[in-house]
Amino acid sequence: MDETEDLTNSAVGLRWKSIFTPGETTLSRGSTPNTYLYITKAIDTFDVSRGKPLYEVFKGIRAKVLVIAFKSDWLYPAAQSREIVRACKLAGVDTTYCEVDSTYGHDAFLLEVEEETHLVKHFLQKASV
Fold this sequence. Notes:
9% strand, 47% helix, Rossmann fold, mainly alpha, 2 domains, globular, 6 helices
């Protein structure tokens, strides 16, 4: 993608507008459709392990960790979340895993608010003891 390409009226630009304009998020103000594409690319190419085994990267974590996955999420499958949990446990990190049964796919994290709230509250209450 050419970084000077104007995508405002393209399919990508229209999709971007539909995602970010209704709620006037911080991202939507002063951003262009290219902003969304570059953020997406950064997320897709980020590698926290940088070639090391994942558990080695997590060895310094002292906080308790909660990982929530959604069974129907195709973008971040539950299997990837379980891989993170396994690496945390190998690193000695106190980790809790919750898998939410949802039919909303990747949007589940936006729509299963009540379930997420319950899981996070329970985790924080348990973590503070």
